[in-house]
What we know:
This protein is of the alpha/beta class and 298 residues long. The chain has helices at residues 24-42, 62-66, 87-93, 107-113, 125-131, 157-166, 179-186, 193-204, 225-239, 268-285, and strands spanning 100-105, 136-141, 172-176, 209-212, 245-248, 296-297. It contains ten helices and six strands. A six-stranded parallel sheet has the order 2-1-3-4-5-6, sandwiched between helices. Strand 4, helix 9 and strand 5 form a beta-alpha-beta unit. It is globular, with a radius of gyration of 18 Å.
Amino acid sequence: MRWRPRPDWKLSPHPAAPRRGLTGRRRFAIIASIVAVLLVSLGGAAVAGVFGAAPQQAGAGQAARRGAAAARAGSLAGKTATPAAGAAADARADRTSCVSVAHIGDSTSVGMVSPQWLPDPAQRLAAQYRDVGVRHTWINASGGRSIVEEMPDQRNGYLVASTWYQQGFRGCWVFALGTNDTANVAVGSHVGLMARVREMMSAAHGEPVMWVNTQTDLSGGPWSEANMKAWNKTLVAACSAYPNMRIFNWAAMVQPAWHLADGIHYTSAGYAIRAHAIARALARAFPAGGHSSGCLVS
């Protein structure tokens, strides 16, 4: 029997949506300072389309062919098998009840759908979701994205989710957001961390949601690891109010070697590991043959 949320899991949208961040010149000054760092290190924003992905990204060179030195989450360190090589075994052990998945992410998701970072399609996020039983995948990843603030010609995470729901999407949601949100709050946004979580949860309308928590290697600045930990604590605190919510504890498994020099984004190997781990976490969060217990998924 496939996992289904209980009837009481259907939640109405949050009645008081937070303000869209700061206004006027100060709002755009904050966003510009944050986006500048992300786009310089990433090589440009990218958006993956529904049912597929076609981002433009800086080349990854030999690192892409080294791919993912990873197997399943929990035993990644020291392994040398790629996610593609381990897919058959994982498919038998890890299956999700989520037939359709909507993944909304920032620049830390762009590399997971990029042919330049991951030349092997089997390593990319959509293929990894298929390996755990997902049949329909909607992916939208954009550099510099947050839940609230927006860059020119970009939709924030809340608006992407709301639009997809209005267009008829029903299924499981994966929110790989928060890295830019906690930075925006750190530099002066009046929309707090919990308000941002509530905003995204309202867009899911009670459907199953898995958040991917955040981590950086930075000791200071808006994207510091201390700020990421504050975001992660906020996610955990929100879980008691949302029985349809799970959190993949990415922060507990990520290793410094998977990061680029900026301490935020990932190498090709890191993106392959991340895509593989997120898909397997979804199968543990919303399994095909039962019901997960607890909020945090490791």
